[in-house]
Amino acid sequence: MSCDWGGRHAPEELLGEWERAHAATLRGPRRREWVRTRLTAKAAVRWATGYHGTEIVTDRDGAPRISGAPGAVGVSLAHTGTLAACAVSRDGREGPLGVDIEPVDVRNAVLLPRLLAPGEPPDEWRELEPGLLATILVTCKEAALKAHRRPSPSLRDYRMWRCPRGRLWVRVAGSGHEDLRVWRSARAGLVTAVCVSGRRTPARRRVTPDHVLAAVREKAPPLDLTREHPKE
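Structure (tokenized):
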């Protein structure tokens, strides 16, 4: 799920105790982005699971996790500028989950030598402009890095390939981690990618700040989060 906050204020008083304390340690744009992303995630968790009053805290590895929800619920966060994104799994036992979002930038072309592993990119991407290709690769590989909790810091080790059935996958070279299925979309100058274990199909929903704030305040009915699906 994603939300473009634009010029809207994200009220910190809607955060939980840990979240407010952490926000107080941040300054300027970083603080605003952090608060927007946490509120978006709290709304996504409510719509996906029905749980209210959860907090999105940080574990010892720096990855987000949900506190205050019964059972295991998986979560991954991303943000760029005014846009916040969150991926949620209703059951954390469903396997790894990662999301990333990046603005398309022609300057990303300089990253290609550090991104391309043997056999990359997939055939249909070879004709893309270098800046767009690099942005897509960065986004997909960053989502995989988050899903697997950073088994390697080098994005070149996250190798993308298509299986004979046409599905897009990413594999962490030499790690023993399971391959992840990749879903991605490009819209309005942004690339979004979600990496999940192969048995799941993610749903995508774009919402407004009003949706998010009403959900966090528990004044909104559940949203249909199965309306759209990104591409493989």
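The chain has a mean pLDDT of 87. The chain is about 25% helix and 25% strand.
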